[in-house]
Amino acid sequence: MKIYTKKGDGGQSRQMDGHFISKTDPQILAVGALDETQSWLGLVIADLSEQTVGMRDDLQHIQRLLYRFQADVSIDGSANIHDDDVIQLETSIDRIMAQVDRIRAFILPGGGHTGAQLQVARVLARRAERACVTLHEARPEWVRPEGLRFINRLSDYLFAMALLANHLDGVAETPAKES
């Protein structure tokens, strides 16, 4: 089976309902930004250190949530992300932050390999959020309020996970301001 269709060669993407829209449409940009975040998390998972390998299930769960959210953004009327998903992220953030040292100043993204990659995932999640907000402003029915809350909270979750990864790897955070 061929994986290419040649249908998108003219800059159009086929929708689930069969009609075509521009690959620059806000919907396609939002789905693409979510896919970037999900794919980067796959790289994070593949590169987990011995100390952070316990994060695998949580990160794969996030990948699955992103898959569900992509369906919401792709299919009009789809509702796969719910308030419970947002609450679960908030609970996880609180649990993680209780395990790491309190951040007292702005820090530079980085640290150990896993922590640095999770900071990149955080930035990609923020880009996805901006794309979803753009789509929501253009067509509110395509991005439900629960989805906006989810993608907003996701970057906070990934920041917390980066802190936890650095903590587990024994790598100190670097303050943004020089002492």
Question: What's the short story on this structure?
Answer:
With 179 residues, the protein is mostly helical. It has five helices and four strands; from the N terminus they run ββαααβααβ.
Write the layout of secondary structure elements.
Layout: E1 12-14, E2 20-22, H1 26-46, H2 56-74, H3 83-97, E3 107-108, H4 113-138, H5 145-168, E4 174-175
Antiparallel strand pairs: 1-2, 3-4
Helix pairs in contact: 1-2, 1-4, 3-5, 4-5
How would you characterize this protein structure?
This protein has 179 residues and is mainly alpha-helical. Helix content is 59%, strand content 6%. The chain has five helices and four strands; from the N terminus they run ββαααβααβ. It has helices spanning 26-46, 56-74, 83-97, 113-138, 145-168, and strands at residues 12-14, 20-22, 107-108, 174-175. The strands form two sheets. It has a two-stranded antiparallel ribbon. Helix 1 runs antiparallel to helix 4 (113-138), helix 3 (83-97) runs parallel beside helix 5 (145-168) and helix 4 (113-138) packs antiparallel against helix 5 (145-168). The longest helix has 26 residues, at 113-138.
